[in-house]
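It is time I had a proper look at our fold encoding. Can you supply me with one protein entry, sequence and fold together? It will help me judge whether the discrete encoding reads sensibly. Leave the record below and I will have a look:
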Amino acid sequence: MEYSKDLSIIIPLFNEEESLGELLAWIRSMTNAAGYDYEVIFVDDGSTDGSWTKIKELADGDDRIKGISFRRNYGKSAALYHGFAKAEGKVVVTMDADLQDSPEEIPEMYRMIVEDGYDVVSGWKQHRKDNKFTKNLPSKLYNATARWITGIKLHDMNCGLKAYRNEVIKNIEVYGEMHRYIPYLAKNAGFGKITEKPVHHQKRKFGKSKFGMERFVNGFLDLLSLWFLSTFGKKPMHFFGFSGLLMFLVGFVMTVWIIVAKLVHQAHGIHYRAVTDQPLFYLALVAVMMGVILFLAGFICEMISRNSQDRNKYNIKETLD
């Protein structure tokens, strides 16, 4: 497939007016040295400072500089989604606008995609310049959990500096807060050649971080959602049906146990409490009802899945006519 550019650099941003000029100069220095035919796509995620005005100023007279401006803040996933749709480069790189990601890392990441054949190259900030207790330790725990759930051995899943083969970003859908898990989305789409590259991480020069501690909690919940959808999205009955059947059997066995125990005690003339006086009886009823509800939920989800528009959407590598 032919591409109009060698490299597309997508930069989502929110209130980063002060850093944009220096960042673009840094990118230009790198691309001039490497000889890339490139484009830079700034995606202004509803900034309230002068970021969009600065982007228009930087783009004046340079058709390699492109921009998208949102009317309000929608989040990084939305910014990347629209940036990906606009990208025309053979290799697509994403990076943050706060000057903590170095454009000097891009040539090697580009080479790993083009020459080594990787689909995704993720940056790994080995030596972070963030606060150790509010960023570093939670990040290590978060990434360990992500490796365990996704099966992708990346040390820094959330690093903003990543490089992709163009086919990857055109065959995945980034939504909600799923930008953290693009490598996992790529893996689920059939792009399994994923690796990482240690990258230099710098202290923030202007402004302050837009992310707080809540992103780790939200990130974990998003990861569970993504895992569930990728595992059971096309076969919900496998989850709800199995869970419902298991719960129904537990409730049924408990009910039979109570009834048999009562009959045995009556046969031997032993005093025994009425079935309805036992808490275990009500737990058994709840288990049976929950089992039926889960089983029916599985049927409903299956019908929805069977009638969804993208049920037969598959990524085709190539065809031969």
The first strand starts at residue 5 and ends at 13. Residues 36 and 76 are 26 Å apart (CA to CA). Strands lie at 5-13, 38-44, 65-69, 89-94, 120-124, 162-165, 194-198. The mean pLDDT is 84.
